Amino acid sequence: MRLTLFFAFGVAKDAEGNYSLIQTKKQYKDFTVMNNPVDFDTDDFLDETQEEPEELKALSDPKDSLTIDNMKLLDKLEILISITRNCQLKNKFFEEHKMLIQSVANDLKLTPMQTVLLCPFVNSPFSIVDFSDLECYFNCGPITIMKLRADIKVLLQRRYVCGCGGYRRARSNSFQLTDKAQAMLCENQGMPIVKTTELTPNEFMQMFRTLIYEEECLQLIGNEELIQETMSLIDDNPQLNIAKTINNLRVGKDEKFVMLCFCKKLLMDNEDGVPLDYFDDDIDNYFEFRDDILSGIHPFVRDGLLSPLGRDNLFNRDVFTLTDKARSLFLSEYTLPKREMKQQNVANANLITSKAIKPKALFYCAEDQEQIDTLQGLLGEKQLKAIRKRLSAANLRKGFNCLFYGLPGTGKTETAFQLARSTGRDIMQVDISTMRDKWYGETEKIVKGIFDDYARLVKQSKRIPILLINEADALLSVRTGIGGTNPTLEKTENAIQNILLESMENLDGIMIATTNLTCNLDSAFDRRFLYKVEFHQPSVEAKTRIWRSFLPKLNEEIAHKLALSFDFSGGQIENIARKVMVDHLLFGNDPDMERLMALCSNEQLSGRNSARTPIGFH
Predict the structure, then answer these.
(1) Phi, psi torsion values for 535, nearest 5 degrees
(2) What is the CATH number of domain 53-186?
(3) Fewest C-beta atoms under 10 Å: which of 230, 443, 540, 595?
């Protein structure tokens, strides 16, 4: 038997969950035959002369509101559901049942119309209800339901119902009673009213995070409702700097939402960078937005609010972050996590702080020493600031591109490190091998990403760091014509060099490139290096000092003789000094002149292949 009879109130519920008022035996028999055509004798259940229960009288013609107010919410809601079907939402219906409707509305903290609109959802808690279902339930036309969109929106905002019927935006006019609303009603309570105005900065950000969680995880609201409720949250809190400044942005509501997401990610999730594709469902014209961001023409980038953080090579995504200007503009009411350069992830490069560089004595010939001294004076903080200021006033480029070239072991890389240490500048060291990628087009992205990372590093550093590109032979060689044995590879290399030339042209910092080969240096690169320092083989006097610096026990005479006998670079002399140290540790003796000569004779000059090594797999 699926027929349920409520003795106290004379309300019967059929198999589909519909309710009817039962006051007489005949009404009950008719209801039973229609909904449960089974062999069931009702003669002993209700007498035809039985009077209407007193409680039902109070509901149909209430004279004392205490009868209704003393009832539990779920009981009142059950009776209200039984009388709302086919009510057509007429004013007469609301007037006739004013006491009951108002009592339930007070418990739910809704208006009378919103309370009645909730009844079909509670009546079918596990079913999806769309606008046509509401028309059938209330027996009214579509125009009537369309006029009530604002009330349905309130039910959505209060989380009594949630949008459903598909992923994100599908079937936006379909709703269902939420699990939380069911649970609250079972406890005879309505959904709480959440405070959205006069929020503190932390309450505001917590509320925004809750909205995102309800959309992404709970799916209580759709993407469109998320944007709308975010805008309402911003409008409701003009006293907050973050709400006021984001609202004043001259962009669409979707993009205001994006900026607030960047703030939320930093404050609540401690994530400095956000991939652009995180917003692919939040912005109507996402691809146009992404292209404008990447090209730098979007107001967020053009006005210095967002900057590239680098490239997420695992998922191949472009990652952006709030600039210091944006942090100051939007987040002045919050305590921000500090940016620590040591913990930053710079793809395809190593970050080395100036304090981590150990001092090392270097010896040059007189000509080289003069050029190194000039560079050291230029890179001093006070001098560099003054020079950059004057260059900017003259509308000249402020970046400094330097080329260190010469034979292996002449101290090119170590000189760059010692310049960084003496001037207090960190180094972003690039390994050329990390630029190689077997996939077409990826190497170009990596090269561009390196300069994007360096530009971000410059903005975040107190002193301009040095971008050090070691063994840049393959990048600086003469560009080739297309049509050789591997035209695809040649086209890729030329594209890489074009990116490098453009990046050097726009560099706002200090770049030092080292190379062993200069005979095939492209003239376009030659013009872009402001300083070109050739590292010669050390003179006899310099080699004598190098010998004594590595082997302090050598007297001046022996050191001078070794310098005259062997045309070694500083790197080769260091190799011999290391072998002497190994001998001492193994045998406990210092080498004599004969042993030193033998070690020098065994040291071979390291020849290098002058052929160009292309980037990529071939």
Answers:
(1) -100, 110
(2) 1.10.10.10
(3) 540
